[in-house]
Amino acid sequence: MSEARVRGTEPIQMPTPHGTFEVRAWRGRDAEHVSLLARGAAWPGEGSDASQPPLVRVHSECATGDVFGSYRCDCGEQLEKALETIQREGGAVIYMRGHEGRGIGLFEKIRAYHLQDLGDDTVEANVHLGLPVDARRYDDAADILRALGMGRVRLMTNNPEKDGALAGLGIEVAEIVPSVIAPRGANRRYLETKREKMAHRLGPSHD
C-alpha cells in the first residue's frame, strides 16, 4: 500500500438542496478533490443501524453532466442520487477531479463526442483517438477514504473496475450498492456500451 499523498483542509459546513454536508478539499497527486460527508442513520454511534459501513460514492468529475446537465451520460443524475441517498443514510461522496472523460480530459472527451456523433460508441471513439478506454486512477480516493476513517465501505457504483481498484488499494468493499439511472434516448447507446463492453452492472432497466 502506498504512503498517503493527499492533504485535506479543515472541514466546513455546506448547505445544499439535499441537506448540509461536511466538506473538505483535498490536494492529491495531480488534482484537487472534494469530500462531502453526511452523518445519517448508518453513521457509527448514531441510529439503529450504526454497525453498517458508511455508504460511499467515488464520483468522477464530469463537467458536461454534473455542471450543465447533459443527457449524453448519466453522471449528473448519478451525482444527485448519491447526494440524496448519502444525506439520508450517512457516508460520503468523494468527488474526483481529473477524471473527466474517464481520465482523458475535457478537450479529448469533446473530440470523442464528435466521433460518437459520427457513429462510434464511447469505447470505439477513445480507441480511434489513440486514447485509453479508461485512464482513471483511484489512489487519491483510497487515501481520502482512509483519512476520513472509512477503510470499510458500502460502495455505490455500477463499475466493477472501481470496486476492484479500491480493494487493491486497501479499502474493504463490504457491499456493492447499484446506482441505476433510467436511460434516456440521448444516452441509451452509451449506457448499453458500458454494460456490454465495460461490464457495468446496469440491470434490466437498460434493456
TrEMBL record:
EC number(s) reported in the record: 3.5.4.25
GO molecular function terms listed in the Swiss-Prot or TrEMBL record: 3,4-dihydroxy-2-butanone-4-phosphate synthase activity; GTP binding; GTP cyclohydrolase II activity; zinc ion binding
Domain of life from the UniProt record: Bacteria
InterPro entries with a match to the protein in the record: GTP_cyclohydro_II (IPR032677), RibA (IPR000926), RibA-like_sf (IPR036144)
Cofactor details (free text): Binds 1 zinc ion per subunit.
Binding annotation for Zn(2+): 62, 73, 75
Listed Gene3D superfamilies: GTP cyclohydrolase II (3.40.50.10990)
GO CC aspect terms: cytosol
Binding site for GTP: 57-61, 78, 100-102, 122, 157, 162
PANTHER family: 3,4-DIHYDROXY-2-BUTANONE 4-PHOSPHATE SYNTHASE, GTP CYCLOHYDROLASE II-RELATED
Function: Catalyzes the conversion of GTP to 2,5-diamino-6-ribosylamino-4(3H)-pyrimidinone 5'-phosphate (DARP), formate and pyrophosphate.
Record protein name field: GTP cyclohydrolase-2
Organism ancestry: Bacteria, Bacillati, Actinomycetota, Actinomycetes, Micrococcales
